[in-house]
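Re: [help] complex structure
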Amino acid sequence: MNKPFLTPYFDENLGRRRLAERVWNVIFRASTTAGIIFLALLLFNILNQSFGYVAMTTKVDPDTLAVNGVALEDMDKDSLVAVLQANVSKGKFRQLERELPMAERSRDEVYGLVWSDVVEPEIAGTWLLVDSILHREKILAETAQKFPRAEVTFRSWVSPQFLATPQASNPLTAGVRTAILGSLYTILITILIAFPLGVGAAIYLEEYAADNRLNRLIQTNISNLAGVPSIIYGMLGLAIFVRTLEPLTSGVMFGATEPGTANGRTILSAGWTLALLVLPLIIINAQEAIRSVSASLKQASYGLGATRWQTIWHHVLPGAMPGILTGTILAISRAIGETAPLVVVGAATYITFDPTGLFSKFTTLPIQIYQWTARPQPEFRNLAAGAILVLLIMLMSLNAAAILLRNRFRKALYDR
Amino acid sequence: MTAEPTLNPAIEARDISLYYGDFRAVKNISMTVEQNKVTAIIGPSGCGKSTLLRAFNRMNELMPSARLEGEIRFMGQNIYAPEVDPVRVRRQIGMVFQKPNPFPKSIYDNVAWGARINGFKSGIGTPSMDDWVEHCLRKAALWDEVKDKLRQNGLSLSGGQQQRLCIARTIAIQPQIILMDEPASALDPIATLKIEELMRELIEEYSIIVVTHNMQQAARVSDYTAFLNMDTDRAGTLVEYGPTDRIFTRPVDPRTEAYITGRFG
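Output below.
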């Protein structure tokens, strides 16, 4: 009989096998590197737009407002009120008086009003971070030539003030406070709804449901639902929560809002819509986690005379919890970045007051970002970049919290 | 097929057949298991030993396709009667598995959990949970090794210790019968020996049915031996059942003789 493993053949073959290994190795490295490069580019792009030089100027030269040689900053309150009255429309002045009569405002408040409504600071130009660092001299020279009154300062578009102020039409004062609160409220409701429902469904499907045609059909459909485009969920949310269940989601049934002004475009509707969106994701991941709890552990439990529920509660759920939480992390990440369904459900794109509860109008960070990027003025693109940064940080801290929780479960299970 | 009559039956199978879906795994087995003895079930791989064992405490039911014909009588009642709760059966007929499977909990909780969920209550004249855990660990010959680390995870023990922990955990629910499914097959010889010694001690209070593929073990540890073999239709049948020393020295059936002398299986 021939010897099938003669040395020359083996050597030749081994060379080929090793070569194939090296080639695949290079391919895998290349794909990983490409992924990292794209991520880095994304982050760079965002950071590049979030910081940089800004040329600030004013619509009205404050020097022209000086009265009898007294500059604005040296004026007393009455002179400032006079300047204000002389330079804004009557309607505007009346409106300011209605908000709070001038007599009750302090000198500094009036000065602030003069500054924002008469002098009106505005942005003459913005530069990217990289340009700001590399071409500082050129930027200064250019600005001095084009806008002699302008002052070039380095501006971080993400700032405490950016986080603390609501949306505004002026990019200098616009912030993301409303959007952050809206996102947090919505995501909280989403988790509160989707987590128990999803885990409950997963427990039923894995531990209780018989293996029959109906349950297989349900199972298949859950998997399919996970792949349905999110805008479809938006339309579902619009039809069910906003329209059909309007008395409920607008809070009229609970007397929370005036029947006249209420509609179902509330945080509650948005939370439900996102909950439906991530529900299949949570169910599938939870099922996977429950299935991974070893059969021998369950048998041990049954063998000791445990009921099905005792087995689930004491052994299956604790064992599956790390996996369930991982799935929930994914679901949160998905929900927090969703824009399309919320646009359909009716998130407000321009809203300046904080959400007050389940039944208030709202906006969320992705929608705010979308709205800002759609504006023609370049400053809003900087704002959008800043908001993206905020969204990323928010997402990461939510995920970090979930991961910490997951690790605690793991620790409780296997160390000690 | 012989089913030895006994004076004190612990549990009795009456003409049982077991199915997985359409497949008949075990057919027409009748056997009476003696109280406070070790009964070994031996036979070649795939002959239905474990299936038969698991029928004694309704563990097969965890597989939805499993089904039983015939009856198993325990304390004068058919445990497969519709009014009988399988939880009650499993509390009275405990089980130790092939692979040591302690819960990922502390050693203490491994023992206490089963007692707790089954309504263990300490009071006047009954032990406290601490005493009960100690009692069970002593019975399982594990106390001296773990008394200083009761709060450690049960999984931190060695394989043999884990298996004895599983035995302690079974004792803690005070069953009358303990089923053991190849309890030593995953253990080294010394740990195996310890388990075997433990089985001899345990029969003072419990009846034990043990499945093993190790004939020396069956000969060493058991009082009665049941030999199962696959029939031509691949269903397991009881070929011979009797006192261990007779089965191993003077088997009646030629198939038994062939198996124990190592000619097949």
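Chain A has two domains: 52-155, 177-414.
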